[in-house]
């Protein structure tokens, strides 16, 4: 089920912050009223596509911070595995230098509540309780506003990496909508024309920007 417009599920879980420190009760609640959050899930530490994504988020961290957006990652690995990966050099497949929080969803409840867990618990024919599917998170990404409401979500299959530039665009669009009360048309980027959410507004935009193209 789509989570757009709904409150982001609340959790408290272990996390690694600043690349070195483990905290046991990390929560997104600390950002309420202060910052938007991009909360993203990835499958596993010490894998292949994942380090490219986590490092790309780190490389763009300054841009997100300038926009008032916090970055928080999450996987079903333990906090100890997160620490080990954070202390592994990049030329050895590690993510040394990543500083934003990485949550340890050991019980898989966070991934399940956000709808990104690759499988689920179920009863087998003999009445036993077993896990069916992949016990890791898909590449789920959620843009959460300052009130804790999810405004954007996307979920990629394990082999499909995210586009970080698109997430910067999502943040720009949300800020524009909040500031000006207008809507952002296809392929909109900061500085381009937006439009009023009226029949006249869309007609004007289409005439000026999309006719005969």
UniProtKB/TrEMBL annotation:
Keywords: Cytoplasm, Disulfide bond, Oxidoreductase, Peroxidase, Redox-active center
Residue ranges annotated for the Thioredoxin domain, each copy included: 2-176
Active site: 50
Subcellular location: Cytoplasm
Main location: cytoplasm
SUPFAM superfamilies: Thioredoxin-like (SSF52833)
GO cellular component, one term: cytosol
Domain of life (superkingdom): Bacteria
Pfam families in the cross-refs: 1-cysPrx_C, AhpC-TSA
GO BP term (any one): cellular response to stress
InterPro entries, per the entry: AhpC/TSA, Peroxiredoxin, Peroxiredoxin_AhpC-typ, Peroxiredoxin_C, Thioredoxin-like_sf, Thioredoxin_domain
Family matches, as CDD domains: PRX_Typ2cys
An example molecular function term from Gene Ontology annotations: thioredoxin peroxidase activity
Family stated for the protein in its record: Belongs to the peroxiredoxin family. AhpC/Prx1 subfamily.
Record's function text: Thiol-specific peroxidase that catalyzes the reduction of hydrogen peroxide and organic hydroperoxides to water and alcohols, respectively. Plays a role in cell protection against oxidative stress by detoxifying peroxides.
Name of the protein described by the UniProt record: Thioredoxin peroxidase
Native source organism of the sequence: Amoebophilus asiaticus (strain 5a2)
């Amino acid at each position: 089920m789509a989570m757009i417009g709904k409150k982001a599920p609340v959790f408290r879980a272990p996390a690694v912050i600043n690349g070195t420190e483990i905290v046991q009760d990390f929560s997104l609640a600390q950002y309420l009223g202060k910052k938007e959050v991009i909360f993203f899930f990835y499958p596993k530490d010490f894998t292949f596509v994942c380090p490219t994504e986590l490092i790309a988020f780190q490389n763009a961290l300054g841009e997100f911070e300038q926009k008032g957006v916090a970055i928080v990652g999450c996987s079903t690995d333990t906090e100890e595995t997160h620490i080990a990966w954070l202390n592994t050099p990049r030329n050895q497949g590690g993510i040394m230098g990543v500083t934003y929080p990485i949550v340890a969803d050991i019980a898989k409840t966070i991934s399940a509540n956000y709808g990104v867990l690759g499988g689920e618990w179920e009863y087998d024919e003999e009445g036993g309780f077993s896990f069916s599917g992949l016990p890791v998170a898909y590449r789920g990404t959620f843009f959460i506003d300052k009130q804790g409401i999810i405004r954007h979500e996307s979920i990629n299959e394990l082999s499909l990496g995210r586009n970080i530039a698109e997430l910067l665009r999502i943040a720009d669009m949300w800020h524009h909508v909040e500031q000006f009360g207008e809507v952002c048309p296809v392929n909109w980027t900061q500085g381009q024309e937006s439009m009023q959410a009226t029949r006249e507004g869309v007609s004007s935009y289409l005439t000026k920007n999309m006719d005969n193209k």
